[in-house]
Description:
Blueprint: H1 2-33, H2 38-65, H3 73-96, H4 103-131, H5 137-158, E1 167-169, E2 175-177, H6 183-201, H7 206-226, H8 232-275, E3 289-296, E4 304-312, E5 315-323, H9 327-345, H10 351-364, E6 372-380, E7 385-391, E8 397-400, E9 403-406, E10 425-429, E11 435-439, H11 455-463, H12 471-486, E12 495-502, H13 507-512
Antiparallel strand pairs: 1-2, 3-12, 4-5, 5-6, 6-7, 7-10, 8-9, 8-11, 11-12
Amino acid sequence: MLKKYKEYSLQLGMFFTVAVALLGIAFTWIVFSDDATYLRMVDDLFDCGVDAMGAFTCAALYYGCMKQKSDGIRSFRSLIVLASAGFLVNTLMYYTTGLEELHSLNFMFVMLSKLIDLVMIYYFYLYVRKTLDFKGKLQRWADRGIPILLGLETLVVLSNAFFPLTFTVSKTGVYQASGLSFLEDIYLTVASIITTILIIRSESPRNQKIAALTFIFLPLINYASTLGEFGNASQYGVILMSLIIMYCIIFNDKSTKLAATQTELNMATEIQAGMLPSIFPAFPNREEFDLYASMDPAKEVGGDFYDFFMIDDDHLGIVMADVSGKGVPAALFMMISKTVVQNFAMLGIGAAEVLNKANEALCAQNKMEMFVTTWIGILELSTGKMNCASAGHEYPAIYHDGRFELFKDKHGLVLGGMDGAMYKDYDLELKLGDKIFVYTDGVPEATNANNELFGTDRMIDALNSKDNTSPKEVLKIVRASVDEFVGNAEQFDDLTMLCLEYRGASNVVAENNK
């Protein structure tokens, strides 16, 4: 629902900017159709030309930003829409000025123009706050104070509909400021000064700061240099110039850096994915078992990992793990942990001893103090006996006698958490058709829009929703249940699962054991 609303709002913004541009053309056509003096037509052409071209530029700029996902893009799109609305109101104001029968409309357009100015400076603050990364006490104060000032200033402007607090508009369309007109300048002045200070104090490059400041200073320079001769007719044009400058400089710099970072993240994603076994069936020549696994990171790269490997002809190793944190640091620690655990498992020792040695190795050079929860199982294919150990990982779910049940195993400390930690193992006896489902906390802790957790109860219900399913189908069922529960909420954590089905010893293994 939220996703559809966002798409609808984007389309509505595009429709609005295009409609304003078309209206600007229509009004320009009316100007040329009027019987007016040459000087009046030049004056009209200036007003309508600025509005029409400005509105078209707004539409083009908005279209270019529709698919952007950079910092502050929503506020930037709002700024474009507000600038477009300013051109529309300015045009309508021009054609109602001097007409006594349209006095009320002219008054309303003046008020709308003032309100657009107020909201525009607020969205400008939101935009530069995000893109230039404001910090400090002043920023925290501004986050609270500027919206309050905006609300008070809005009330001041709207009060003119009942009594002339700050301005009046005569029957002939003449604008007159009252003695309390300074009240309108308090919010604009305070917000502009605070925003200017925060822009200058930000750690962004100088060209980005200058680009952002054009939004505040260009309209002032324009107004002072023309002595207010053109009023709003050129104000929004100058503001639009500022938006274009900001877009070209800030977004260009950001997008260049983002593109380089994204390329590196894409490479990291491919490298990480390449380290996890992803070809299924994993061992097509082995009839003793079937397994399937999947990993969906919350970011481009994640800290979860699974692994499975043949230790020897009769032993299969399975690992499920979850590194603390997310992103690139977690992914790097994940690669190290995966290699360490597999290397010790290949020695043919028990599951607990694998964790003991892996913990010792990970604690040796762990300056970042990261850790990893780990579950390991070593399955003896000829007997179905599985030796397991857990380093603070989620409880596995065991399928036996036609139903999955949560198996609350013995937990040890996480790997990398404390040097010298010792781990205990336990044994499972898998019969023909039994399954084991292991996962990371991204499954039970999947969260919907109401901040409700998916939980292990829903997970077990999903596992038992269908019977006699393959490991691949088991994972599909659980993932579908998680997706249905989460809905449009953003994926909070990496989501990793593995399911193994024991099908009994093959003739080859049985023959070798005689």
